[in-house]
């Protein structure tokens, strides 16, 4: 059961609302970890923000807990708390100063969490905001989030012989509100040139 709201810090990232007790608890767990574990926690956090598969993340969590002699429940509570704080701060595009004030308010006497998370806030925020951009677009259609390719040579078909043309197989990973799908297109040399012209037009130097 939550403690009275007036006893819990009110954070910039929550627009002045009191922090949930579970988040306060998770942040405390992070601050109580040994310094080495706090440093290793950053790798676990970064992996979780990349959207790794649940099974892979669970394995990484178990490995982290075993390596540093920490109960998995404690590591998980800390991970969920930091994810929550970063997500709220990133959604508001909170500046590092105000985010640092939030972390300080959560544990005025413990600076370990502030040091390892606060110092990495900007790249973590950018990573989260990129994901929010993709999610915002995916709510209304498909977004290109990745690609794979290979090159083959087409020598002949039932339509013609002696074609001897290089063909690029380009597989697009597209994300929308329902998930991710893969679509493969075939590019002839002329298609590749057309795509290059398009990319040059929208490149930073174009």
Explained architecture:
The chain is of the alpha+beta class. It folds into two domains: 5-137, no CATH class; 143-202, no CATH class. Helices cover 54% and strands 16% of the residues. The chain contains eight helices and three strands, in the order αααααααβββα. It has helices spanning 21-31, 35-49, 54-68, 72-91, 96-106, 112-118, 121-138, 189-202, and strands at 143-154, 165-176, 179-187. Strands 1-2-3 form a three-stranded antiparallel beta sheet. The radius of gyration is 23 Å and the shape is elongated.
Helical fraction: 40-55%
Rg on CA atoms, Å: 23 Å
Number of spatially distinct domains: 2
Give the distance, in angstroms, between the N- and C-terminal Cα atoms: 57 Å
- Order of neighbouring strands in the sheet with most strands: 1-2-3
| Beta content | 15-25%
Uncertain runs: none
Mean pLDDT: 92
Largest sheet: 3 strands, antiparallel
Number of strands: 3
The secondary-structure element order is HHHHHHHEEEH
């Amino acid at each position: 059961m939550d403690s009275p709201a007036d006893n819990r810090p009110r954070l910039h990232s929550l627009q002045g609302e009191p922090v949930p007790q579970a988040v306060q608890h998770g942040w405390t767990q992070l601050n109580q970890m040994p310094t080495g574990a706090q440093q290793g926690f950053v790798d676990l956090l970064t992996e979780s923000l990349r959207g790794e598969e649940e099974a892979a993340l669970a394995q990484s969590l178990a490995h982290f807990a075993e390596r540093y002699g920490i109960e998995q429940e404690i590591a998980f509570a800390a991970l969920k708390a930091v994810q929550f704080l970063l997500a709220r701060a990133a959604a508001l595009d909170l500046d590092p100063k105000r985010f640092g004030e939030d972390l300080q308010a959560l544990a005025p006497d413990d600076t370990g969490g502030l040091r390892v998370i606060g110092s990495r806030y900007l790249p973590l925020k950018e990573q989260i905001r990129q994901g929010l951009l993709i999610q915002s677009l995916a709510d209304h259609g498909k977004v290109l989030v990745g690609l794979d390719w290979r090159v083959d040579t087409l020598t002949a078909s039932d339509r013609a012989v002696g074609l001897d043309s290089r063909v690029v197989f380009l597989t697009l990973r597209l994300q929308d509100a329902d998930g991710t799908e893969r679509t493969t297109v075939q590019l002839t040399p002329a298609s590749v040139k057309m795509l290059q012209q398009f990319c040059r037009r929208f490149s930073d130097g174009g």
